[in-house]
Amino acid sequence: MLSLGAEILSSSFLSKIMKINTYRTIIMPVVLYGCENWSLTLREECSLRVSENRVLRRIRRPKRDEVTGEWRKLHNEELNDLFSSVIIIQVIKSRRVRWAGHTARIGKRRGEYRVLVGEPEVKRPLGRLRHTWEDNIKMNLQKVVMGIMDWIELAQDRDRCGHL
After folding, report:
1. What is the pLDDT of residues 64-92, one digit of tens each?
2. Cβ within 8 Å of residue 9, ≥6 positions away
């Protein structure tokens, strides 16, 4: 299946617009399925970004340099300018914050809320502690909202949380 997708995206019979639409409507939703609950490490974020750039390079194909006349791959900045697409990591973070707000507003008696704010009953493994999902939400909100505040209280205020 992966080779079929690669053949479609590198096909010369399809226009670039059709390839981009295929990427946005078929590939992105499959990759981002359930991303609201992911707790990503930097290595995983880098891996997602690399795979996104690989797909965009396959769509765009190599470019001939005007000065030397040699073929070269597009740089990451050139890819972002050409496709004007939102970076996959930003999409994951915005979906995570939106889902956290929804879950915080549904009520304390629901199972999702209890799982969201509950403490695990098992011990964490030795070594450096992995960021929890809630830690990621707090870090994302600190970048948007400059002060440190309780994110559950922020989620209850839909007017203020709606534009985050």
Report:
1. 777 787 887 777 777 777 777 668 888 88
2. 19, 22, 23, 55, 58, 59
